[in-house]
Each structure stands twice: as structure tokens, then as C-alpha cells.
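Weekend entry, working from home. Most of the wet-lab plans are on hold until the incubator is repaired, so I used the time to fold the two sequences that have been sitting in the queue since the last round of cloning. Logging both here for the record. First:
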Amino acid sequence: MHINMKATFKLTVVLVMLLSIVSCNKKSSRSYQYMPNMYESIGYETYQESNIFKGGIEAQLPADGTIPRGDFMPFEIENNTEGYEFAKANLINPIATAELDENVAGPLYNIYCAICHGNKGAGDGMLAKKELIIPGSYADKDITVGSIYHTIYYGKNSMGSYANQLSENERWQVVAYVEKLKADLNK
């Protein structure tokens, strides 16, 4: 019985050594591929010459007035000082303050705005406390619905644009929430 255990142990050691040698074999390619299209994609020539399209090139610019799919709508006001002043004076929030959904706007504000502006809009967010960005309090700012929306859409000074992170409806929800925070600070 004792001899069989020694023989079994030796056989196990030899098998483990053989398996490790075989498994460490470095082949540059797999011997069998289950789904070759996932490993070797087909290259399509999108910019090849063609007689079908104007100019002889297949890749064309989209037609004028084309809007991408999804919740994107173009913002007609320009990204400059005149555009900011125009938005400040003329834009109206389609979401009335009474329609503000704090269950939507509050978390969005906390995700994108509170890091700098603080949870209550007092300009005491985490980055402001570390003096990396000093946004100031909403109570001290001359902001309107239009200026808030323009700033969220394009960004201003050290604040970047959030147009890609927030849909149009979400931007207006955040605008209404900022208005509410400003009103609370001014009480």
C-alpha cells in the first residue's frame, strides 16, 4: 500500500510537469478558432472611388438640416459673449418651477454641479474647498434662466460644457433646480 502511494505521487508529479511544459508552448496563432470574424474583422473601403455618388467618393456629408438621432436638438444661440447675453435676456425655461422634478434634477445637480457649486449652491463644493475652482455663491451672481442654460450647454470660464452628458430636458431640470437654490439662498 505504501509503495502504491509513492508510485501515484511520482506519476502525479510527472503528469504535472508534462502538462506545464505543454501549456507553456508559445504558438503565435491559435490552432482552432471558433468565431474567426471576431478575430479578423473585414476591412470595408468607405472612401473608395465610385461612379454612383457626386464627386466620385462614397463617403458624403449629411444633407443640410440633418439632426443626429436621439435626444439631441441643436442650440441656435452662438457660443460667444453676445450669445450669452442674448440667452440671458431672452431664453425662457419650458419647465415651470412648479413642474420641477427634484427626483430628477436633484441627483443630476449633485452629480454634475455640486462638486464645485456645493449642494445648496453656496459655492462651497469639494473643489471650491480645495481652492481648485472658486465658483462663488448663486446668491451673489447675476444669473437668469437663459444664462444658466447657456453655461450648461457651452460652459463658461473654468466650467466645461455638459451638453453631451445631459439631455435637453435634463438641462432644463437642472436650470429650474439652480433657480430654486438661488431663491433659497436669497431668503
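Second, folded right after the first finished:
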Amino acid sequence: MLEERAYWLAWAQIPGLGPVTLRRLHNHFGSLKTAWELPAPSLKAVEGIGPQLSAAIQEHRRKLDPPGLLREHLERNPQFWTPADPDYPPLLREIPDPPPLLYYRGQPALSSAPTVGVVGTRDPSDYGRRWTERLTTTLTHQGFTIVSGLALGIDAAAHHSCLAAGGHTWAVLGTGVDQVYPASHQQLSQRIANQGLLLSEYPRGTKPDKANFPQRNRIIAALSRAVLVLEAPSKSGALITARLANEYGRDVYALPGSLDNPRSLGCLELIAQGAQLILGEDQLLEALGGLPALDPPPPETITNVDPQLQPVWQVLTIEPQSFDQICQATGLPADQVSSTLIQLELFGLATQLPGLQYRRGG
């Protein structure tokens, strides 16, 4: 696994190769080291890699030495995870576009606590701020870790309330973990590093860029077991987070507000589209108590399963895949894949769906 992380880093340097295609590349060949050593034409079997990207891969691979690149990168960025690392957050493994590199600063040992995302407008009303503080404090006292984005308004209120209640909070940034944006959150950022975790898919030194913030919203959504939108206008980054959370299979909750308050219209739209209504602390806790259990741990941590099952298990994701896709990704004979899937189902590690499709988890 230590060797494989060098190849996650190296592949991430190739322009035009985004997280979705990189995930497909890994799933198809089972190892990014294996994929690195293959001739460029072989990579075209992966969806999303056409002639232009294949040529770019071939050009950049000649210039990169993955082990050497990792050594240099660690000098500037000593704290980061790749999907090859056992400490990489398991909820991120479930999504189709996990960040290939996840930088952190703070207390990574806290990463096993149940998580709830809290997002909303940068300009909340007194009502929105008050309910953010009430709900966040209640959730913190119940042992939840609060995930948000260190922005002004609802994000900051959620982080502050969690810290004041003695809890742990994660801030997902659109900058490097050594940068603070907005600058007024210097003290808050340091408190989070002391009592929680700062996370980013961007290396140290990355300055604020408006294109980075919608991207980081997917990480907030993915890291959260449920997402609360506590006040948001119709055009709000919080609604992007809610949409992504829904796509990732997370529960979305919205705080109702007045039709006369433009800051609440986004929440009301979410409720109309099926988001769960927040009616108070007790009702929210009761609803969150019904969250499904986390999926089984990643393959690196499963020690009681026959190693012969691992190649099939590693290509399974929370997204359903056809039997043919699994055979293609593993390169194994159909009868062996079928037998392995049956055994994984018996262990509760895989589920068969209609249409001969399979996904990770029982």
C-alpha cells in the first residue's frame, strides 16, 4: 500500500485526469502501479480516456518518477492520505469521484466519530444563526462530529458552537490547509486544528480560488452521514452540497423558514423536493438515530476474509455495477467472479441487485 500511494500522487499530476477517471482507472486495473506500467493504448479501455488524454498520459509519465515524486512531495506536504492509505476516510471511498490526495492538519485520530454536515448562507438571519447554534450544540453533546466549510455565516456558527460544546469539528477547505480563508477566521482555524481537523484536496500554499469551493462541497457531502441546510437562499453553495449529498445517498435535512425571508427560500425548495423537515432538536435526533450503519471497512483492513476474495471486493463500490463490469475490472473468469460474489454476499460484504448488478455492503 505504501508503494501504491506514490502512484496515486503521480497519476494526480497528469492534466485532464480528474477524480472520476482516476477512480475508474484504479477499478479497471486493480492497481495504479499496474496501470502506470502499461502502454498508453491499453489505457483506452477505461471510460473517459480517449486519444488526447492517452497522449497526455504518455507524455507526462516519461517525466515522472513516482517514488521520487512522493519523497519530494512529503517534504512540502507531510500530512496527506490517498485511497491506498488505511486512514483515508471510508465514506470518501464510496463516492465516484474521491479526492486522490486528501491533505490534513489537526487531529486525524478523531476520524471514526459519526459525522453530520452543517451548511448554509454566509449572511444568516438571527433565526438561522440561533438554530444553527442550538442544533449543532445538541448534536455535539450526542457525540457527532460536525463537518462544514469554514465560511462566514452558518459554517462559522456551526464550528464555533461545536467547539464551545467541547466537540470535534472538521473544516473542508477550498485552499491549502496552511491557508486561512476568510482571513478573519485565523483564530477559528487554529482552534479547529487543536480540537478537530482541517481537510483539503489542495496542497499547501494553494490560495483561494472561486473554482475550488464548489469542488470542496462534494467532500463535505461525502464525509457526512447526513447534511443539514440551516438557511440558504435560492442560489447558494449550500444547495450544491445538498444536491451532491443526495446523489451520494446521504440524508438531507432543511430548516423551514418564512416565505418573506429570501435566505430561507433555498431550504423551502429543498423541502418541496423531498428533503426532511427539521422540526426541533428531539425530532432531528430521532431521525438521525435511523441512519444506516457504515459500510464495511476498506479491503486493507479486512483480515478475516480469504485473500482470493479481495480482487472482486476491491472493485466493488456503493454504486451498483453490472456483472460484466466486475469481470472486466478484475480480469478474472466469469465463473470465479460469480463464486466470489456469492461468498462476499454470505459475509455481508456485497449485495446483488435486480439486473445482475452488485454493490458493496450488505
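Plan for Monday: verify the second prediction. Residues 7 and 259 are 52 Å apart (CA to CA).
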